[in-house]
Amino acid sequence: MKKTVILVLACFLVFGFLMSCKKKVEQAPPPPPQVKEQPTVEKVVEPPVVKEPELTEEEIFMKKSLEEVNAEKLLQMIHFDYNKYFIRDDAKPVLEANAAWLNKFSSAKILIEGHCDERGTEEYNLALGEKRAKSTMDYLSSLGISADRLKIISYGKSQPFDMGHNETAWQRNRRAQFTIIAK
């Protein structure tokens, strides 16, 4: 009996060993997950940006008030020598630039103001200021600016640019100044 039990036990061991060495059946890989159809995204086309038409320089000028235009100091003043009203050489390029601006904006009308320093009588300075404004107007006319677009006035010594009482202040006060009066 001992032999039988050992034999049965040996058979079980051999059988168990053989079973463990048996090839395992490979399982088929799981099927790939089904891809759900992605919803199509419609591309949103933004409407084209409508640019406002760019304004010309003249249209921009016309939109501004006279106060705004004069505050920009588009026309430069010129200066005169003591007791003189002729146009100095350093003032000619300034007047040429002013004339070019006036040609560009052909509807603009200007007032030319003649000013003097504080020395001299009021009557004398009013007459000298008028001569300064008139010589400035004549020079602009010689550059092709129509005289009907130009007006003159003399303020004499009543509106100083520089309130000082020295040669530097007086030089700054002897001037022709421009004010745009119509567009």
How would you describe the overall organization of this protein?
- The structure is a single chain.
- The protein has helices spanning 2-21, 57-63, 66-71, 92-104, 122-142, 167-173, and strands at 78-79, 109-115, 150-156, 175-182.
- The mean pLDDT is 87.
- It has a four-stranded mixed beta sheet.
- Helix content is 40%, strand content 13%.
- With 183 residues, the chain is α+β, with helices and mostly antiparallel strands.
- The protein has a domain at 58-182: 2-Layer Sandwich (60s Ribosomal Protein L30, Chain: A).
- It is built from six helices and four strands.
Number of H- or I-type helical stretches:
6
The sequence of SSEs as H and E is HHHEHEHEHE
Q: What is Rg?
A: 49 Å
**Largest sheet composition:** 4 strands, mixed
Can you give keywords for this protein?
60s Ribosomal Protein L30, Chain: A; 4-stranded mixed sheet; single chain; 6 helices; alpha+beta; 183 residues
Helices and strands in order:
Blueprint: H1 2-21, H2 57-63, H3 66-71, E1 78-79, H4 92-104, E2 109-115, H5 122-142, E3 150-156, H6 167-173, E4 175-182
Parallel strand pairs: 2-3
Antiparallel strand pairs: 1-4, 2-4
Could you write a compact summary of the structure shown?
By secondary structure, the chain is an alpha+beta fold.
